[in-house]
Amino acid sequence: MGKAVRKSFRSQAPHGAERRRLEEDALRKQHWKRWGPYLSERAWGTVREDYSPYGTAWESFSHDHARSRAYRWNEDGLAGVSDRHQYICFAVALWNGCDPILKERVFGVTGNEGNHGEDVKEYYFYLDSTPTHSYMKYLYKYPQAEFPYARLVEENRRRGRQDLEYELIDTGVFDENRYFDVMVEYAKTTPEELFIRIHVTNRGPERAELTLLPTLWFRNTWSWGLDARRPRMREETSEKDCSIIELEHEYYGKRILWCERKPPLLFTENETNSRRLYGDQEGSQYVKDSFHDYIIHGRTDAVNPGKVGSKAAAHYVLPLAPGESDIVHLCLTNESDPGAFSKQHIDGLFERRVQEADEFYADLAPAHLSADAKLVQRQAFAGLLWSKQFYHYDLKRWLVGDPGMPDPPQERLHGRNSDWTHLYNADVISMPDKWEYPWYAAWDLAFHCIPLALVDSTFAKEQLILMLREWYMHPNGQIPAYEWAFGDVNPPVHAWAAWRVYKIEKKRRGVGDRVFLERVFHKLLLNFTWWVNRKDAEGKNIFQGGFLGLDNIGVFDRSAPLPTGGHIEQSDATSWMGMYCLNMLSIALELARDNRAYEDVASKFFEHFVYICRAMNNIGGEKIELWNREDGFFYDVLHLPDGQTCPLKVRSLVGLIPLFAVETLDSELVDQLPRFKHRMQWFIENRPDFSIHVDTQSHDGEVRRFLSLVNRSRLKSVLRYMLDEEEFLSPYGIRALSRYHKDHPYVLSLMGRDYRVDYEPAESSTGLFGGNSNWRGPIWFPVNYLLIESLQKFHYFLGEDFKVEYPVRSGRFVSLDEVASELSRRLTHIFLRDKTGRRPVYGRTRKFQDDPCWRDVVPFYEYFHGDNGAGIGASHQTGWTGLVAKLIQQSGE
Q: Is the whole model's pTM more than 0.90, yes or no?
């Protein structure tokens, strides 16, 4: 066995205040990330809070219950922050004088109420954040008219799948600008001291009054029969012009919230209102929704006159003339006195933190980048950083119940996630978003880590390692997919993400963290083995992984038994595994530079790639190919029970994903590894059917070997589809389904029934797979990003002489590197203002396009209209759509 040479990872000296904070936090000298935006936008309607017999989570804990019922697992709030264990939470609550309830959390329709699935129905924006959260900025737009809760639910229920979503702006509550802008900013002076600035503006034409309740509370850890200790908060006297809330918590000790102007303080308990929900007349008097009763119904007995409790708020009433603003300052600190608690001091602090944030992000913006592109990149990073959430889920406890609560339904023991009893999560995790997806999704998170690596590579690495820890990864090697079904199958992109994060950090810091790479690699070996043993059912090196994230793209629901019987040989699942092999091969070769034992492992992944290449061209020796020679494209193949096979000729991402499996091996590395080189050469010489997937060329004494599921000739054929504007190529990226199917829907007639796939550039009109995801035409950032990266890899080997027509029928021939850059710009231009000043992402919503108070706050949607680039689906999924920040960094605008 080769001698292992370990190199300790040391970063270069940091430059700038924020980089110094990052370094101090990474070295555990100062815990700058102890406080952050870790509060969810929604904790109701989640699997964790579901206590129904059959997993109807939306109905088990509804929005109506959220204000009155204590959460078991984690908290939610508006523009909120918490400590990283979420023992102490802070958020704002609002009342416009009309609403039937306090505005304490963001509202939306549930999966069963929305015509295209769950959908948030509010306007809030993450405008800025540094990686240590030393500065954060959040904007919420609050109507002055009564919030139309019932109308939003009723109208969306009434509408069908062919109709557009009914949005809050469609109700007219923002007409004549009758709303408040509520801007919430945070600035840290130390890791333990957080200043808060709340800036409220009346945008309307008439005088209006806003009740503002900056609210502080403890997550309820004492009601479940596991820990009887109850933290307390109380009012303290002050000689200054401030009101003071003093907190005492077993974990953190004493904390103080200073509230300027000496507002009245309200106190209650973060306890369930069992009187309201269950008719329990013996229930507690001071409960979670007491402030609601005090403010809206004038019930003075609803709050504790003793000024103690586990939830407290400062009560501000802000009367505002048209266009007038007011600013409220607060400070949460572990010190008895926050120092100069004056407007001048606080404004100076915020000014410094904004300057430091500007300095930090200037390093990530290419030279000559426009102010508009800088704004988009900055808000993309902000969305990624604000979408961190404390995620708590002890699955065994969830299954059997808590000592202090009724037993869960018995059906739970054999239902959702019941075979994941090892899973224990209590960490800050990067979420797809914190309302529609307030839970981690393993393949989403892999994409989040790419732009996150630019601003905080330590956090990106920690996230990737976290998913592989023993209390996350299943003992059988499967990575947990997502809360609704941990055992579902996501595309295997974790190795790709780890390799990319390693290289991004190495490029930026000058040294790679090999310890991180080795830790990830060992755990990924277990996951790779799980894939081979569980998803190659027939041992043919052809993989079947359910829908693999591509909701709605296929003829059938591939996660369910086929209505025809038989099975599907999946082009995309097999290609993902080809990509996985090459990612693991690259990591093994990098590690072999210091430890020759990894040469043998690298040889294993090379060998596995060989067999996947062979299998795609001759499944099980039956001469069945996933490559269709007639069309020059990759398709799934349906196997029927009687032995017949049928290619499913849908022009979709299924046929483009083989492009992801591509890698170049340079002699500079291979020549250092003689055992691997010898083994590779043996395969090339003794497996002639593999030779079409290995291309070799020499230049100036250097030999390059090119591994790909798609060789030169097939590449040109696939790209003729992909780069055709009548097929996949949209003005805003690559569509998930070819536009060809708009006029030529794919129809498969079997057993007296037709199965059909149509091109749908916007929301899906089929409910076959549930939810609000649609891969039948829209543009998705994660797969577009992988396509761009693959084109760059093809160009690295094939060079400037390999040109393709772009777009098809244009007569313009360019290199693959130019194609990659152009695709990057098409994606970026979804968010940038065009020549007329309009952003495609806003679609036809005139308020966003024309109003100066709306036109520069950018939502990052889950996916985008295949023809006009309008945002669709989840409106705050900066998670993988945050990849636009990386595209701007590497390709400009």
A: yes
